Amino acid sequence: MAEHTTAWQQHHPPEARPLWHWAPTGLADLPRIRRDLRDRISEHRTDGRPAVADPDMFVLAVDELMSNALRHGRTPVEVDIGRTDDAWLLTVCDRAVEDPPRPALDRDPAEGGMGLGLVAHAALGEGWYASDAGKHVWVLLP
């Protein structure tokens, strides 16, 4: 079966207050960043309650964008997480501006590569844009 993909739309995300930043240099950095992220979101509270409704999906989304940038983009890779008034903005920048994010639409799940679609399904919005720094792929999570 032919694989159909649709690139995410090119547009800017909403403004967000910067909170956390990482600069992974390779896939070996991902377990450390996931642990650090889990620690940070467990400590982050809004009105005394956990600020992240679904920590597993949150970590999965960050991991998916980071690993895609490291596997399919060009280094250096920058990971930023910020807050809008009512959502989380996850942004990953790599240098492969010519290669926008394209979730697989009809790939056999056994072949992998379904992460972008899963992340988009959980997101309030997603997209990407190019700047002098590179390709910025972003998702907005509740």
UniProtKB/TrEMBL annotation:
<keyword id="KW-0418">Kinase</keyword>
<feature type="region of interest" description="Disordered">
    <location>
        <begin position="1"/>
        <end position="20"/>
    </location>
</feature>
<dbReference type="Pfam" id="PF13581">
    <property type="entry name" value="HATPase_c_2"/>
</dbReference>
<feature type="domain" description="Histidine kinase/HSP90-like ATPase">
    <location>
        <begin position="48"/>
        <end position="122"/>
    </location>
</feature>
<dbReference type="InterPro" id="IPR003594">
    <property type="entry name" value="HATPase_dom"/>
</dbReference>
<dbReference type="GO" id="GO:0004674">
    <property type="term" value="F:protein serine/threonine kinase activity"/>
</dbReference>
<keyword id="KW-0808">Transferase</keyword>
<protein>
    <submittedName>
        <fullName>Histidine kinase-like ATPase domain-containing protein</fullName>
    </submittedName>
</protein>
<keyword id="KW-0723">Serine/threonine-protein kinase</keyword>
<dbReference type="InterPro" id="IPR036890">
    <property type="entry name" value="HATPase_C_sf"/>
</dbReference>
<dbReference type="InterPro" id="IPR050267">
    <property type="entry name" value="Anti-sigma-factor_SerPK"/>
</dbReference>
